[in-house]
Design goal:
single chain; 176 residues; alpha+beta; AOC barrel-like; eight-stranded antiparallel barrel; elongated
């Protein structure tokens, strides 16, 4: 009887050790968050600051840095609706068209998400002084706080702005 109990103990210990090893070697793959497709639209609230310097080689060549605040107005994931974004952006442009890159913090109800982005922008001036700015690019979700601490993903964005306002539409595959 004593040997039978010892065999049971060894079997339980071996099973437990196997589970621990399985978790250590494969845990991230087994317990990884589900990747989810999300999309939505954001509207700008304010340009909090913008500093620029003329480069001087050709007319209209500028290097700039901006801090922009925007708010989500619609999302395919209802938990994300209404989140605020703060973007710190640097760019280079000639006559309003060029490249930009930056860092973004998305403020959700229960934590923050951190994003890196880069893209292109183009300004078209129309008759009478009206203008249209379009932007497009890609972004990478790099982490966050709270439930977004292990957030990761990638997405694309397209924006259109005029003197009357504008919005950015985005699509991503992400996981938390």
């Amino acid at each position: 009887m004593r040997n039978s109990w010892k065999n049971v103990q060894v079997t339980i210990w071996a099973f437990g050790a196997a589970l621990v090893m399985l978790g250590a070697f494969c845990g991230e793959e087994i317990f990884a968050a589900e990747k989810k497709a999300r999309k939505g639209s954001n509207k700008p609230i304010a340009v909090l600051s913008r500093q620029s310097s003329a480069y001087g080689d050709v007319a209209g060549h500028e290097i700039y840095q901006s801090v922009i605040l925007s708010k989500n107005v619609v999302s395919s994931d209802k938990a994300l609706e209404g989140f605020e974004q703060t973007m710190i952006e640097q760019g280079e442009e000639i006559a309003g068209s060029g490249t930009h890159r930056g860092f973004e913090t998305d403020k959700f109800k229960d934590g923050l998400q951190f994003v890196r982005y880069e893209g292109t922008h183009k300004t078209i001036t129309k008759e009478g002084g009206a203008w249209e700015l379009t932007t497009q690019g890609k972004y990478t979700i790099t982490g966050g706080t709270g439930p977004y601490a292990k957030a990761k993903g990638e997405g694309t964005y397209k924006c259109r702005f005029t003197a009357e306002g504008g919005q950015c539409d985005w699509e991503e595959i992400s996981e938390w």
